[in-house]
Amino acid sequence: MMERRRMDAALLGLFLVHLATALEVPLDLPQPPTITHQSPKNYIIDPRENIIIHCEAKGKPHPSFSWTRNGTHFDIDEDPNVTMKPNSGTLVVDISRAKAEHYEFVYQCTARNKHGTAVSNNIVVQQSRSPLWSKERVDPIVISEGRSLVLRCRPPAGLPPPIIFWMDNYFQRLPQSARVSQSLNGDLYFSNVLQEDSRNDYICYARFPYTQTIQQKQPIVVKVLNLDAINDTMAAFYNDTDLFSEEPADERKPNFLIPSGPSSSKTVLRGQVLEMECIAEGLPTPEISWAKVSGELPTKRTSFLHYDKTLRIVDVSESDAGEYRCTARNPLGSVHQTIRVTVKAAPYWISGAPRNLVLAPGESSVLTCRASGTPKPSVSWAMNGIPIENSPKDLSRKVEDDTIIFTDVQAGSSAVYQCNVSNDYGYLLSNAFVNVLSEPPRVLTQNNKVYQVIKNRQASIDCASFGSPIPKITWFKDSRSSTLDGDPYVLHDNGTLEIHTAQAHNSGKYTCVARNSLGIYENHIYLEVKEPTRILKQPEYKVVQLGRSAVFECKVKHDPSLIPTMTWLKDDGELPDDERLIVDSDSLTIVDVSESDAGVYTCIMNTTLDHDSASAELTVVERPDPPTDLELTDQKKRSVQLTWIPGDEHNSPIQKFLIQYEDFLHHRGHWHNLTEVPGTRTTAHLKLSPYIHYTFRVLALNAVDFSRPSFPSRMVKTEPAAPDENPTGVQGFGTEHDNLVISWKPLSGLQANGPGLHYKVMWRQKVVDSDWTTVTVANNSKFVVSGTPTFVPYELKVQAVNDHGAGPEPAVAHGYSGEDLPVAAPDNVQAVLLNSTLAEVHWDPVPAKLIRGHLKGYKVYYWKEHSLHKHNPHLVKSQILTFSGNHTRRMLPDLHPFSLYLFNVRVYNGKGEGPPSPNHQIVTPEGVPSAPSSLRVSNPNLDSLTLEWSPPHERNGHITGYTLRYQPVNDSNELGPVEELALPANETSLTLLNLKYSTRYKFYLNAITVRGAGPPISEEAVTVMDEGNTQTPHPIAPSPPRRPPPKARTVNPFGNVSSSFGEDGTLISWDYWGPEQNVYVEYIVTNTVASRQVDIATQGWFIGLMCAIALLILILLIICFIQRNKGGKYPVKEKEDAHTDPEFQPMKDDDCTFGEYSDNEDHKPLKGSRTPSNGTVKRDDSDDSLVDYGEGGDGQFNEDGSFIGQYSGKSASRETAGGHESSEAPSPINTMNSLNSFV
């Protein structure tokens, strides 16, 4: 016993050592043969085609092939019909010259080379057979209704067995059910027959799969008779009829037709399919159920076929053995059948077939052939096709039952070993070679192979190697600083390196090294970790109405180095080929949706490494189909029951049903809503009115819309009756002061309940014991009572009456006779002054009897008689304030201060206004004035200017004075300190002195009364620059006023006029609110050094630049002066040019004069202008028209902008210079003046 344990331990150790030896030996190395392909053990052939028996093998050197047939050598060369394929052992039998059955034998292939011999399985060759049905006489079957029946098929035996089915003469399958079904052997069973089973074309068909042929049995005629037909038929069929019964069958409990007896047994092989059936007859038709007596049915491998009559278990195992019970049951009883199942097993491998061994000289290992079966199989060994006991002895080999132990193998002991495992139900034959080699390592995986894997997934890098002895695999990454062993790396026995969860840092170059005692080999592998593909925005569930569009979005993120492919599926299949389905890069659009488009849509984003998918359902909705089959039941005098069948909901549940009716008697062609019921109901109890000819229809409503109306129901007529109700809305009112109009809402035809509808109208004054006055009114909904007192309360009643009686006692309504104008005015009218613009008016209410109608409210008439100020005109303009309701005080708003108002109060009713109360006065006190009506600035000088204003339009009292406030404003619109002056009331102008020159000021002027100061009026103005050296007036905003004061520059309608100096020139800006479209700008250029120093005193760089330019120009002018003295006189035209900007005067090379001036810049608008006009600044044709002549302040412009002032003395000198050339050279002083013009 101890020795056996030691042996098992040794075998286990050898097995583990060489577990990885089941490797593919490279074909360039010596190796015994290996069978790679062979025909199946039981090989069924088609007799119409050539027979091909496969046998393929590999080895080094390439093996040769031979065959045995029925255990003896098969000499292929002697049979002209048999050939062997080149470099192969496959046989091809040409049956064109021989019959296939002549080659039905047991074949075995042998492949051999100098290192060993491999053999194939025993291949049993049989041809497929599809024999014809034997001729037989099929007699008609006549059977009484309710009896059981079996139609036998009995197909001819074929190889393989045929597939059986029943059809009629038109090749249509016969219907089967729980009552009629086909058994496993092909017979057709009827648990009980019905008259509908009568037919003359019950045909059994057999289809043979290999030959694809179908054979059919002669048709069977079946006639099912009831008791009355049996006696009539017996005489005609007594010679030729197999009559099963003479009486109709009664109901009976079940009885088994298959299997017979109380129990049966069945044997099945492991791994095959177990099918058991129970077919029972009975009336009514029995139901079949199954159970396993000794355990549970294997749910995942079990199915029920043929209406539960067949129990099917696939992939049978030993656990499926035991007893099974089928039960047939109907209302009259039940019956049981027990089936005992035995499971046998042909041999099967426990741990796989034996594997090839590659050993180095001196190594040891084991070859194991471990299998099981029921009954237990036997194991036999062979070497190179010869039983091992007959093979040459080998001391390194020892056979132990299902194991061969190899110890210290030597070169030249390579061989192929065959293991044969067999029992009564089959056998297993396996070849495994032992190849003794000495081989240095090699890596079989392609060098520099690139593996790509998705981040966070498992990465496996192969390093398939071969060598003898078995190489040891070592892995390195990048710098090869250390071996890859341990977390996160796992090294498998076959050399594969696994990373359980790949991350971006795992990307890089890997090196696998294979070593054995004979050498070393290394290989480089690259791993790239990619970002996963993810659907960021998934398609969403859509509910779309028929005919509209649906859009499914599918936005995806993927690794940029991978090429994505978007695929859309519908219901897990391809999208329909329809132009209505538009596939974009990230969406699917379905236009004009139809019902067939409903389903589940899936977007799949595929890359070469991974994919992601998302699905959404499209539900197509439409308004429901109209209800059908309207039926009226349970009709009574005043009610009826209506039922219907709902139409198709079109994927949107019905919310409610609307029931409508047509009154064929009174309103033919008009449908009226009657009632509604919930969408879960299909019946309604309808209340009916008398004297109506009803026709009903039903409409269904879902989330989309109402359906079309159903077809109308049949007509329901109701008998006439007295009215059930009286008119509603009864009211009384007067249209004249002496009448009473009684009106009501008439009854509809549905409410009339009968013919001859009219109304009994009753009224009386609302006093005790007054009698009712009654009239009858037909075809009208009002009645006028004349001669009534003015505005007297009445009680009213209106009763409906028809030819069949009067309606119920009517309710009493109330009304009044006609109104008249009020006859009295409110008393005790007075006013209380709250402030200068608000007063409260009081009065006593007018007695109700004097109002003579419904009190609607009061009206206050008031008007401003005149202002208390002598300058304001006399005004009489009446205003009315209406106050609804019974009020005795109200406010009069928005009064003018310092004014006299008159007012009166009147009451009014539904007829109109009453007389006015006597006029009363309201004298409002003084208030604050409005702003002065105007404020103008004139005569601006260096340090002074004049303000002129007009009194306020609304003085609201006596003006006691004015308040003037003003403050300077700098270029950044910041306000300086405020100066304030108090002015007398009789002044309308003021001259301000000691102001800063060239400064913008803002002025605020208020008028004052005893109640305080009013709102201010504001204005802005700028003091002028130093006029001592004024050279040229230039256009500047605003446009000239129509009536300007002498030598004054009017600012209004301009404001906020300012200027600022910069490198490019002077920026002039303003606000403009006048009506003119064009604005003319007038501006003055001065050459005073002081003023220029003020503007740029803080800009030293600018002063230096100007001085340098001036010096340069001075030098140039001196040079030109010298040359002109030598060459001629200086023209006046060139003098004029000298006044322009030197920056735009290029010097001419020939005479040192300045070139022509380009006026392109002259037409550009001034910067900073904020006027809504086109902002164009217009200049004169001559740029020096104002530079050369006079002071800028002396000239005036008319309304079209032309200059109308007198030229100064300089004009005369200009004319003289223009006519005669000067013979004298210009002096340096004149030259400096010209320089100042430039600057």
From TrEMBL:
By its UniProt entry, which Pfam families does this protein fall under?
Bravo_FIGEY (PF13882), fn3 (PF00041), I-set (PF07679), Ig_3 (PF13927)
Bias (Polar residues) ranges: 1224-1239
Region span, Disordered: 1028-1049, 1132-1239
Any idea where this protein resides? Cell membrane
- From which residue to which does the signal peptide run? 1-22
UniProt entry keywords in alphabetical sequence: Cell adhesion, Cell membrane, Developmental protein, Differentiation, Disulfide bond, Glycoprotein, Immunoglobulin domain, Membrane, Neurogenesis, Phosphoprotein, Repeat, Signal, Transmembrane, Transmembrane helix
Question: What residue stretches are annotated with the Fibronectin type-III domain?
Answer: 626-721, 723-820, 825-927, 931-1027
Ranges of Basic and acidic residues composition bias in the record: 1132-1151
**Location of the Ig-like domain:** 33-120, 131-215, 254-342, 347-435, 441-528, 532-619
Q: What is its main location?
A: membrane
One molecular function GO term is: cell-cell adhesion mediator activity
Recorded GO cellular component terms are: axon; plasma membrane
Q: Where, by residue number, does the polypeptide cross the bilayer?
A: 1101-1122
Q: How does it sit in the membrane?
A: Single-pass type I membrane protein
Query: Is Signal there in the keyword field?
Result: yes
Gene3D superfamilies tied to this protein = Immunoglobulins
Gene Ontology biological process terms, A to Z: axon guidance; brain development
Member of which family? Belongs to the immunoglobulin superfamily. L1/neurofascin/NgCAM family.
- The protein here is known as Neuronal cell adhesion molecule
* Organism from which the protein derives: Gasterosteus aculeatus aculeatus
At the highest ranks, the source species' classification is:
Eukaryota, Metazoa, Chordata, Craniata, Vertebrata
